[in-house]
Each structure stands twice: as structure tokens, then as C-alpha cells.
Write a structure and sequence with these properties.
This protein is of the alpha+beta class. The chain has 3 domains: 36-324, Sulfite Reductase Hemoprotein, domain 1, CATH 3.30.413; 356-412, Sulfite Reductase Hemoprotein,Domain 2 (Sulfite Reductase Hemoprotein, domain 2, Alpha-Beta Complex), CATH 3.90.480; 425-568, Sulfite Reductase Hemoprotein, domain 1, CATH 3.30.413. 30% of the residues lie in helices and 21% in strands. It has 17 helices and 20 strands. The chain has helices spanning 4-9, 26-29, 36-43, 49-60, 67-70, 97-100, 118-131, 154-163, 196-206, 279-293, 304-324, 368-380, 404-413, 422-426, 444-457, 536-550, 557-563, and strands at residues 79-83, 101-109, 115-117, 135-138, 144-149, 176-181, 219-224, 238-245, 249-256, 268-274, 346-349, 355-359, 365-367, 385-388, 394-399, 427-429, 469-472, 486-494, 500-508, 524-532. The strands form 4 sheets. A 5-stranded antiparallel β-sheet has the order 1-2-5-4-13. Helix 7 (118-131) packs antiparallel against helix 12 and helix 10 (279-293) packs across helix 11 (304-324). The N and C termini lie far apart (76 Å).
Length: 570
Amino acid sequence: MVSPSQTETAPPARPKRQASRPNGQWKVDGTAPLNGNEVWKQEDGGLSVRERVEKVYSKQGFDSIEGTDLHGRMRWWGLYTQRKPGIDGGKTATLEPHELEDKYFMLRVRIDGGQLTTSQLRVIGEISTEFGRDSADLTDRQNIQLHWIRIEDVPEIWTRLEAVGLQTTEACGDVPRVILGSPVAGIAADELIDPSGLITDITARYIGDESLANLPRKFKTAITGSPSQDVVHEINDISYVAVDHPEHGVGFDLWVGGGLSTAPRLAERLGVFIVPDRVAEVWHGVASLFRDYGYRRLRNKARLKFLLADWGPEKFRQILEDEFLESPLPDGPAAPPPTRAGDHVGVHKQTDGRYYIGVTPFVGRVSGPTLLSLAALLEANGSTRLRTTPHQKLVLLDIPEENVEALIVALDEIGLAARPSLFRRSTIACTGIEYCKLAIVETKQAATDAVLELEKRLAGIDVPQPISLHVNGCPNSCARIQTADIGLKGQLLPDADGGQVPGFQVHLGGGLASVGRDEAGLGRTVRGLKVTADDLADYVERIVLRFIADKNADETFAHWAHRAGEEALQ
């Protein structure tokens, strides 16, 4: 009991400081879910929906699919509903998901390391032609996406894919996504280490593992043994870049916390060296750290990059080593800058004397018939292997020298160029409004039309380097607009009649580490710099010609774009 004298002499009570709201970190705040997504993920995990697809939904049809399965759990198996045709971009932000979506799915085929056989390619091509209206897109994460998939056909599609060693498991959702790998793993003469076995080990042990099937958000991985640094390591949650340690030999430099979308952040080195035998252990440690400490209250703050931004690399390393690894990691050096282009386009000699050929379609758009023709061409030329790339390209392996030129001609005939123009080579585009419920504008055709027009207009002009053009249908940056020389973010722009037309906000001078660029950097935005879709080729032509006229001797487009005055960039 407090005495009267104590009451009289005690200072007035200070108001209690309101505790900051919890971030939903399991190891800090407990596991009580703080939003609707976290509720259903805990009630019934995403991996569980496969049984319902096979036993209920595929038999009873689209309208039988329960809501949180349709808009949540089915992503764990690579399925998203696609956009209903005819809904313009102005309605993207105003309609509910069920109003935007069609009764068809996008199906993402997971291709870890980008490694495919012609038998697997043929199965994907057959699925496209039989079930997907010939659709097929190469993504910038080495996957292949099909469209127009009916729920009734999904079990049969899974059966066919899994019969040849492919899967859609955790191709989407709050899970470990596809692992990017060097497209020239095991064949390039300058490779430091072949990471193929490491990728296989991680996927076999952890993809589909219930303990990692409820992460705060998606978790992206990249591993390369190539000095070309060909897996866009600066924008993944965890990346391994091969490096030759002066004492420990060849292993990996570890990067964490990269990602783009509406809040771009480049990954940071932890300053450690990973021997090959510890790659899977460290991967599991970082994924588990993200699961236990990642932010879960707000989904727009739930990527690993936000945790790294708050902690910094030193604290991140300390907690990783203390709580999630068997022993600390040695310090390690950074990998040297890339020595050659990482898209692998063109003809290159393999270590065994045969050749690999990097080819590009227009902005990743292929088709079932194209894939079937490609499988037949490769087998006719003695090859059964190919790779997808993080640049919407294909790399064809094991071609005998005497077959190279004839094969290049045949590839051109099916829309795959081994010697493309600079703009066709360096242009990528996201899915866009054709299929995506988040998109505001069309992308694939707009980018293709721009490339074709630029090939004509700039024919004979000495463009000194590839200038990357990345076209995105919304702010989410699936086409990596902030890391392109010219990045285009889709939006609607006012027209002269008081209406709206499709267009883009322009980002200039971004890029990842590459030949001529030692470090990654984000693009520059200039206030009011926007271009309509119809004027896209005009703008790119104008800015490229201005760069050629104004640049210093060996200046890159990105360097020029950051130093140029705003009037020069209009």
C-alpha cells in the first residue's frame, strides 16, 4: 500500500509511451497472424491445395474453387488467374480481383538453373499446344509461363511435367522461388565452378518442404560460377557469385537483400566466403532467418530487403552465424567485375570443342509450336540440351562446329535470332495487360513494335554498345525497369481530348554489374518525363542519337544519362 506521504511527494505519473506496432517477426513478436494472408497461411498451408485441385476443383470446375485457394494457395503450385480480355488499364486499380480475372490460369513451369532437355522442352510445347492455345513466354527468371490453362486440365499437365522431371511446385507464392543459375554452367571455358549440383541439392532438399512453405513473402535465389555474373545477383534475396579466394580456393561471395518492385534496393555483400560444401547450409540459414525475423504485418514491407535495410549487413551476418549456421563463416573477397556479356547471345566455344548458341526471340514471346520446332532442330543437330536465361533468352548447347551456321539459319526461320540487332538483344518486357491483372498497359507488342521500328530507323548508325530497353506494364518492375538503360513503367497518360492513352514513365541510366560497369546502380527519373506507347520508338531514337552526339569518348549510356541535363533527356 502506498502511504499518504508518498502520494503527496511523488511526481505526477508520466503517460505511458505507446509501444511501436509489432512487425510480425515470429522470433520477436510471436506467430499470431497480423493480416488476412497470414491467417489463411497458418490455417492451411499453400502446399495443401494440390489435393483439392486433383480431387475436387478439376472435377467440379472453376466455380467450385474456394476463395483463399483461388487467390492464395494455388500460387504455391504455379497458378494465377489471368486477366479477363477487354478490361482496360484504367480499371486495374478499381475492380476487385474476381471482376478482373478470367476463368483461366497462367501456369508457371519452374526451371531451376534454367536447365532443360529437348524431351522436357517437347513436353512443355505439347502442353502449350493442347491446353494453352499455343502460349509460351520465357521469363526473366528462367521459367516458362503458359496461359489459357483450365483447372480441369491441371492434373494431367502436372502428370506430364513430372514424368520428365519438371514441376510447378512453389513457382509462385510466399516460398523459395526458382533458383537462377548460370546458363553456361558446366560448359563455359572461363567458368570458375559449375554450380549445377548445388542447385539440384537445394531444390531436392527444400522445395516443397513444409518448414519453408510459409515465408513472409517470396524468396529469390541466384547462383553462378561464371565470371560474366550472369544471374542478376544484385536484385535477389540471396545470391552466390563465384570467387577465387587466395587461401581457400574457388567458392562463393554471398549477397543478400536485393529486390526491385516499387521500393527498389540493391543487395549487399555480407563479406563472407562460402565453400561449395556449405552452400546449401547457408541457403537454408538465410531462408530460415527470413522466415523467423522477416516482417509479416504489412505485405509491402515483407521482403528480406526491408529487414536488411534496418539491420545492416553486419548484424545480419552476426545473427545468421549465431542462430542459423553450424559455425561462423570466413571473411572473403569480392568477385572482380564481369569480363564479358552475361546474356550469352551469339556463338561461343564450349570446353569440349563443341559450341553453344545464345538466341533471342522478341521480348521472351515464343509459342508451343516454336518450342516443338526447336526441340526437333536441336536433336537433328546432335543436341539434347538447352538453357533458359534471366534475360528472356535461350542458350542451345552441344552444337558441332560444322552445324553452327546452318542451324543459325534454321533458328531465324522460327523466330530465334543468334545475331540480333542491339535493340532486339537488349529489350525485355513483362507479361503486360494481355494477361496480368496488375498491368495498366500492353507491353509485349509495344516493345516488339518499337524494336522493329528502331532496327529500321537506326540501321547503319554506329550505336557503340547495347542499350537495354525494359518495358513494364505497372509499377511492380517484373521487367526490372530500374536496372535498365531505358526503363519504362506503364501508366495512363492524358491525351489532347481529355481522355487517357497508354504510356510510360521513363527511368534512365540503371544497370547491373557488367562489362564497362563495375557496380550496379538504379536508374534516374526526370520529373515529367513520360512517353506514350505510340511515341515510344520516336523517344528511344531521339535519346539514342542525342547520346551518340553528346557522349565522351568511352562513356556508357548509363553514365551519360546520369550526368546529362534534364533538357537533353526529354
